[in-house]
Design goal:
This protein has 335 residues and is α/β, with parallel strands linked by helices. Helices cover 42% and strands 14% of the residues.
Length: 335
Amino acid sequence: MSVLEKMPFSLLELASVPTGSDIPATLLELRRYAQHADTLGFTRLWLAEHHNMEGIASSATSVLISDLAAHTELMRIGSGGIMLPNHPPLVVAEQFGTLASLYPDRIDLGLGRAPGTDPLTSRALYRDERRADNFPEEVAELQRLLGKDIDASLGKAHAYPGRDTNVPIWILGSSLFSAQLAAKRGLPYAFAGHFAPALAEEALSLYRRLFKPSATLQRPYAILCLPLILADTDEEARYLSTSSQQRVLALMYGKPLYLPPPVTDMDLHWDFASKRQVENFLALAVVGSPTTVSFKLQTILKQFEVDELMFTNDIYDRSKRLHALSLLNGLDVSN
């Protein structure tokens, strides 16, 4: 029995552009990547919204969702997430209502309250910085717009398409605020352990402790997202992981975020302080051979009470990236 039959495994994508490649090639490769994951039986693939980040091609998130859904058959495709302060809830409801109409029961709407960009770009998006404080109200508005929307007859705007599509809404986060909101509203929750590992245990525990059943969800349901580098041997995986380490360094220094090729010696690229920062950023990274990764995942599942694991898979070589999915499909993390 594959691990995917025991616990749902899913994927998070930023459409990272490898150094030396371009956006068209990256998006075509992403399509093949999604098709491979779909064939293997992964549960879902989500795309993250970022803006004005050179090397990250997922800014038009709903457009990419439509493309990947059109080229896959079974896997759920969604946002991980739509940064709600950047968009009027009505527009989001219309877009995802349209997606749900095209691909019934296959679309997820993950929501975040961060801008997913820098202050200058936020202003270019016509974002009111105060709207981040309205996140709970805008989540509630989206629930209304995507539900039966009985208030539409009272003169309120409604989403058409969108109304009564009941697109599943997820709260995404890297803080205790998001955990509390998801629990209060009885919504599923996904924690960003791939870049905010420090609060993962506390946030996931808080979500379960405070969860209130709702018409949407009777029991808490939580995803933990982790960085994954999986290869045939531990040595190869450590080598391949230097690509993501270099990109975190680039993020720290405000440089373009192309995914660079791996290097044999990271000590030529960082000092002690920046190495510690990168290691803290990637503290939940799962790197190694199938045997090593299986053991690490068993350990993580003992530490965190989660219902699903989601992985980033930032490997520079596109063929090795596909191979990592096949290796993951064959793991056994049973206790």
